[in-house]
């Protein structure tokens, strides 16, 4: 058996990497399996201390048990998750059994694969930085395995490696053709979304629990967009007595290619960067269309994603108004449909209001007044309502609710009065960031009503009447709501935002994250084309491959010549001595390999007597490091470098 | 340089003119507890040097003149019947001495040579199956005439390997020879003051084993040895015993130079003496190796 050089440190470093990698799966796999993975790594940390490893039988039994646990706990429905977890489990066992240098090298190799799979689940800036530092540690372990350098030196070497890799990575991103994925990942759930296809007032209460970013908006100029921002995502046209749904009719029409969306005449233009989502809807103001090839514009003025949902997407939106819309008879019927005999009390109320206000606009205003005058209040923790006539219970008994309640109720009442109305869900407001960006979070999710009269769709937001502050921007800025809101908020820096420093930190982190998303994650085929066009103009088609080929040729040539040179040595001071020799050779002083370094330096001294003192100092370092075997400390290293530099700059 | 050793060298230099290098090599050999072979033409001062060495080290000293009719018992000693006691008692031969000068060792027959070489290796003598330990320290300084002279029995390679070092003195330079003719050298080497006692010698020997031998130097030794095994130039490649001898000699050389660490220069300095007699007949073998093996940085 090979005697391992400092096995303890290597073992601990690898265990540490495994623990963090397991932690990355926190959002993906059940806690039980995570606990198994982490305890295995901790076990390894523990037995590594005593330098004893699991024997084969015990390991096999344990592995079988863990595999069963994997299938039971993680399940087979999500194959990506299953295989990633399985690989991590297998690698952990490999580490548990590793004894020799060779086996540890295998583990390091496996870690590279495992680290790469983490990007399937996390692509944010912080996560990327963390994964990168794990790469560095792993590289260092790998280097440390076959060289007796100190671990610190190995780490430095590996940081250097990563830094050398950076320009290559940037080059590949910029110039390598962006091919579509060879396979599609089967439905990984990447982000929680605040919206769903059904507006059931009870479901949106969960939204405030999430302060995840949904999308960001970038305006070319600040004044173009005017609040309130109603970011439309979904239209619900069918009421089934309990919840608002998207009818099959609407669905088929939304994707019916014969009904083309009409580009609005007067529009404002801005860019939206949407985070990965499990659903295909996107976000836009008013009647929104987009020319982006990855975005589908429906005739309703909504935007949908095409293709991969797992990626950030950046698209330009042209938003017009919802005026000048003429409804066909069919559409009028569609938007006034109601199931019979539910919520009789509210029906009566609506009809009595309609009798007094025959005009649609008058009814619109009367209903707003009604919500305003009655003792309705806004809450994120409403009383749960069951049964058939939930709207009746809400209007006449509870009177406490959030946007979903008000939107459902209002749309129902409009339809009772035979006025076309629909529930729209999306997001309201957003947090204004430095520059001209607006961040919209899951807690900005909202539902409202669009009512059709005078050949236009009008926004009816009863929530705004009940809680007018809701209109003024992000919900998070409201002092009244803050208390209940923060209670529901998950872990995040947001809740600490009243501390100035933390708010500053949060803003800057978000700014960084924004740049990361904007420049790296959303860099798709189109951005690449634009970039190349801006670089080379119309000649991009043939210059780009030329640049790639020439660069590759240079890299290979450079590598060829570099490898011809004597490879860098791991022994201390060797590189410095070689540099000295090269310097002397350049100055026409021959160095002889069969002479000792000190003899060669004596030779150099003879020819460059004015540099004697520097050379003597260098000799001293050689004697100390090479022959007295004193440590090549930072001090000596610096001295050697300074001496070399002063030699190089000397005449 | 260590002042004691410096004085020793100075003293020896009053006996042998202009041979400081050889004196130092001989000292390095003795400090490494190795046996020394001095090879040269007659009349070059071989015997004088060995005599003087024994004298400054204050060691008991015996000289054996090897001739073709010398028998092993003449060297080792023999059991003699004591008529009074009616027992055999062992009479020690000249080998029972701290420094044995085996003069013109290649004049004796192989049987006698082997008897001495066995004693050198085992530091004990077996006569009639009784073992007799030799004194400590025990050095053999053998001199021999160049092999191509008439009436010699050349030592086989396996026995040459027992000698830690082989040195040859060479002709003195003009000035040194002039001084010799004028009789300026100290001819009474028996009167040389004792500079190193036996205790000091053992301290020196311990200190030499503690001299730092860095990886760089070990690598160089390995490269040199490997070269003699790979290159077709060499008849007899160097054995591991030779590489160990090389490292010990380099340490002793460094110590004599007053350092507690070995430089590649030390290896180069002792390389010819340690390896020439092991490599074969060509005189330039070691120089060839030094010229072709790169020094590890």
UniProtKB/TrEMBL annotation, chain A:
PANTHER family recorded: PROTEIN-GLUTAMINE GAMMA-GLUTAMYLTRANSFERASE
Protein name: Transglutaminase-like superfamily protein
Keywords from the named record: Membrane, Transmembrane, Transmembrane helix
Pfam hit, one: TgpA_N
TM stretches of this protein: 7-26, 32-51, 58-76, 128-145, 157-176, 542-562
Keyword Membrane among UniProt keywords: yes
InterPro entries assigned to the protein according to its UniProt record, in alphabetical order: Bact_TGase-like (IPR052901), Papain-like_cys_pep_sf (IPR038765), TgpA_N (IPR021878), Transglutaminase-like (IPR002931)
The Transglutaminase-like domain, residue ranges: 395-464
UniProt entry tagged with the keyword Ligase: no
From TrEMBL, chain B:
Source organism superkingdom: Bacteria
Organism: Pseudoalteromonas lipolytica
Domain ATPase AAA-3 as annotated: residue spans: 35-165
Protein name: MoxR-like ATPase
ChlI/MoxR AAA lid domain mapped to chain residues: 229-280
PANTHER family reported in the protein's UniProt record: METHANOL DEHYDROGENASE REGULATOR (PTHR42759:SF5), MOXR FAMILY PROTEIN (PTHR42759)
Gene3D superfamilies given in the database record: Magnesium chelatase subunit I, C-Terminal domain, P-loop containing nucleotide triphosphate hydrolases
Coiled coil feature spans: none
CDD domains, alphabetized: AAA (cd00009)
Pfam family, one: AAA_3
């Amino acid at each position: 058996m090979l005697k391992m050089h400092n096995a303890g440190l290597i073992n601990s470093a690898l265990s540490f990497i495994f623990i963090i990698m397991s932690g990355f799966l926190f959002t993906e796999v059940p806690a039980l399996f995570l606990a198994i993975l982490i305890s295995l790594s901790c076990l390894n940390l523990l037995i590594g201390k005593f330098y004893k490893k699991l024997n084969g039988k015990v390991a096999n039994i344990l592995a079988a048990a863990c595999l069963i646990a994997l299938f039971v706990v993680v399940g087979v429905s999500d194959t990506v998750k299953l295989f990633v977890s399985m690989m991590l489990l297998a690698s952990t066992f490999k580490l548990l059994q590793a004894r020799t240098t060779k086996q540890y090298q295998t583990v390091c190799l496996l870690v590279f694969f495992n680290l790469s799979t983490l990007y399937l689940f996390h692509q944010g800036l912080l996560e990327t930085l963390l994964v990168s530092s794990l790469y560095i540690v792993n590289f260092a372990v790998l280097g440390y395995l076959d060289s007796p350098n100190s671990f610190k030196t190995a780490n430095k070497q590996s940081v250097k490696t990563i830094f050398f890799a950076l320009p290559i990575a940037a080059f590949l991103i910029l110039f390598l053709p962006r091919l579509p994925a060879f396979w599609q990942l089967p439905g990984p759930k990447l982000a929680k979304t605040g919206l769903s296809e059904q507006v059931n007032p009870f479901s949106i209460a969960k939204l405030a629990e999430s302060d995840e970013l949904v999308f960001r908006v970038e305006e070319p100029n600040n004044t173009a967009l005017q609040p309130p921002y109603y970011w439309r995502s979904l239209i619900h046209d069918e009421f089934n007595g309990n919840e608002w749904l998207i009818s099959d009719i609407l669905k088929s029409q939304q994707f019916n290619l014969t009904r083309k969306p009409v580009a609005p005449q007067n529009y404002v233009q801005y860019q939206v960067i949407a985070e990965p989502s499990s659903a295909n809807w996107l976000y836009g103001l008013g009647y929104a269309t987009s020319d982006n090839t990855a975005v589908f514009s429906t005739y309703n003025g909504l935007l949908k994603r095409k293709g991969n949902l797992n990626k950030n997407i950046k698209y330009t939106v042209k938003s017009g108004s919802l005026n000048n819309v003429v409804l066909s008879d069919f559409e009028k019927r569609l938007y006034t449909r109601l199931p019979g005999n539910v919520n009789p009390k509210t029906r009566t109320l609506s009809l009595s209001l309609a009798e007094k206000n025959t005009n649609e606009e008058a009814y619109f205003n009367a209903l707003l007044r009604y919500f305003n005058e009655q003792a309705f209040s806004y809450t994120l923790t409403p009383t749960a309502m069951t049964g058939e006539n939930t709207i009746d219970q809400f209007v006449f008994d509870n009177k406490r609710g959030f946007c979903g309640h008000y939107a459902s109720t209002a749309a129902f009442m409009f339809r009772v009065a035979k006025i076309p109305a629909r529930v729209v869900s999306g997001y309201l407001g957003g947090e204004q960031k430095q520059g001209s960006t607006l961040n919209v979070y899951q807690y900005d999710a909202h539902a409202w009503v669009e009512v059709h009269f005078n050949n236009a769709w009008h926004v009816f937001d009863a929530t705004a009447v009940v809680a007018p502050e809701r209109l003024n921007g992000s919900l998070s800025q409201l002092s009244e709501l803050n208390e209940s809101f923060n209670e529901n908020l998950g872990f995040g820096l947001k809740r600490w935002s009243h501390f100035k420093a933390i708010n500053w930190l949060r803003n800057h982190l978000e700014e960084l994250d924004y740049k990361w998303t904007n420049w790296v994650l959303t860099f798709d085929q189109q951005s690449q084309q634009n970039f190349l066009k801006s670089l080379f103009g119309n000649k991009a088609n043939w210059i780009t491959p030329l640049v790639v080929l020439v660069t590759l040729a240079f890299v290979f040539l450079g590598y060829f010549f570099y490898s011809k040179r004597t490879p860098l040595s791991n022994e201390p001071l060797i590189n410095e001595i070689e540099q000295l020799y090269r310097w002397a050779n350049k100055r026409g002083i021959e160095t002889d390999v069969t002479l000792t370094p000190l003899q060669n330096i004596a030779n150099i001294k003879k020819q460059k007597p004015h540099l004697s003192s520097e050379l003597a100092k260098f000799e001293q370092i050689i004697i100390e490091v090479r022959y007295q075997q004193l440590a090549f400390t930072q001090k000596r290293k610096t001295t050697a470098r300074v001496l070399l530099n002063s030699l190089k700059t000397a005449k | 340089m260590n002042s004691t050793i410096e004085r020793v060298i100075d003293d020896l230099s009053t006996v042998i003119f202009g041979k400081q290098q050889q004196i130092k090599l001989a000292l390095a050999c003795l400090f490494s507890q190795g046996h020394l072979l001095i090879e040269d033409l007659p009349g070059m001062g071989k015997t004088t040097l060995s005599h003087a060495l024994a004298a400054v080290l204050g060691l008991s000293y015996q000289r054996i003149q090897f001739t073709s009719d010398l028998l092993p018992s003449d060297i080792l000693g023999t059991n003699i019947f004591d008529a009074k006691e009616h027992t055999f008692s062992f009479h020690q031969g000249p080998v029972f001495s701290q420094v044995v000068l085996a003069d013109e060792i290649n004049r004796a027959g192989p049987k006698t040579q082997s008897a001495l070489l066995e004693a050198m290796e085992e530091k004990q003598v077996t006569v009639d199956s009784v073992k007799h330990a030799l004194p400590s320290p025990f050095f053999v300084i053998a001199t021999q005439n160049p092999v191509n002279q008439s009436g010699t029995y050349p030592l086989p390679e396996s026995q040459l390997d027992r000698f830690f070092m082989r040195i040859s003195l060479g002709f003195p330079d003009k000035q040194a020879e002039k001084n010799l003719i004028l009789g300026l050298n100290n001819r009474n080497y028996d009167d040389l003051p004792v500079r190193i006692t036996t205790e000091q010698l053992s301290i020196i020997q311990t200190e030499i084993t503690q001299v730092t031998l860095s990886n760089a130097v070990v690598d160089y030794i390995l490269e040199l040895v490997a070269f003699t095994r790979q290159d077709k130039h060499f008849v007899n490649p160097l054995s591991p015993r030779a590489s160990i001898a090389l490292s010990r000699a380099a340490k002793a050389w460094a110590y004599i130079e007053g350092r507690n660490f070995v430089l590649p220069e030390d290896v180069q300095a002792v390389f010819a003496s340690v390896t020439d007699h092991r490599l074969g007949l060509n005189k330039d073998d070691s120089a060839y190796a030094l010229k072709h093996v790169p020094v590890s940085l």
